[in-house]
Amino acid sequence: MTPTRGRVWTFGDDVNTDVIHPPQFFSLDPDKVKRGLFHGLDPTLQPALRPGDVLVAGRNFGCGSSRETTIRSLKLNQIGVIVALDFARIFFRNATNNGLPCLTFSDAADRSKLVKGQVVEIHPAEGRLVTDTGEEIALDRPGKFIQQIWAAGGLLEMLPAVARRGDV
């Protein structure tokens, strides 16, 4: 997997999927879905996002419903990686299935070292985050299969390669 470089956006604990992407932005229109990201929390956040930006959060990120519109909004906004203390399991699975890397801190105290706007580079396969000052923060390394899904851009994108190899 290639490293991701982006600005940090910080969040607390228990960030619910309805906060990440409010129901009034559910749509088949990708522009409407994109605009809804974090709208109820801070309407100025989504327009300020840049491709590759990194979300940093506390515990239970993505709790709430299992609707994939939340992941779709994150992907449409080209969020590069989410790093949190931990994730709601169904959110983690939906994100992984859609090729959005979600990593956890090896040491929970390291979360406090990251601040909004700081530029970081994340090396998912190595379990390493490097700050703009050169400080390295350890992240839990995902398993090889999860890395393969992320590298392929999601589970569905991975299937044609598996079929070509004859693994199915």
Can you describe this structure?
This protein is α/β, with parallel strands linked by helices. The protein has one domain (4-165): Aconitase, domain 4, CATH 3.20.19.10. The chain contains seven helices and seven strands, in the order E-H-H-H-E-H-E-H-E-E-E-E-H-H. It has helices at 17-20, 30-35, 45-48, 69-76, 89-97, 144-152, 155-165; strands spanning 4-10, 54-57, 81-84, 102-104, 119-123, 128-131, 136-138. The protein has a seven-stranded mixed sheet with strand order 4-3-2-1-5-6-7. It is globular. The model has no long low-confidence stretch (mean pLDDT 94).
Summarize the structure.
30% of the residues lie in helices and 18% in strands. A 7-stranded mixed β-sheet has the order 4-3-2-1-5-6-7.
Attribute tags:
seven-stranded mixed β-sheet; 7 helices; 30% helix; alpha/beta; Aconitase, domain 4; 168 residues
Q: In CATH, what is the homologous superfamily?
A: Aconitase, domain 4
Percentage of residues in DSSP E strands: 15-25%
Backbone structural class: alpha/beta
Number of strands: 7
Contiguous uncertain segments of 5+ residues? none
**Annotated CATH architecture:** Alpha-Beta Barrel
Largest sheet: 7 strands, mixed
Task: Tell me the number of helical segments per DSSP (H or I, 4 or more residues long).
Answer: 7
Strand order of the largest sheet: 4-3-2-1-5-6-7
**Radius of gyration using CA atoms only:** 16 Å
Helix content: 25-40%
The CATH topology annotation reads as: Aconitase, domain 4
- CATH domain class: Alpha Beta
Question: Secondary-structure element order, as H and E?
Answer: EHHHEHEHEEEEHH
From the N-terminal CA to the C-terminal CA, the straight-line distance is: 24 Å
Global shape: globular
Q: Quick check: average pLDDT?
A: 94
- The total tally of domains equals 1
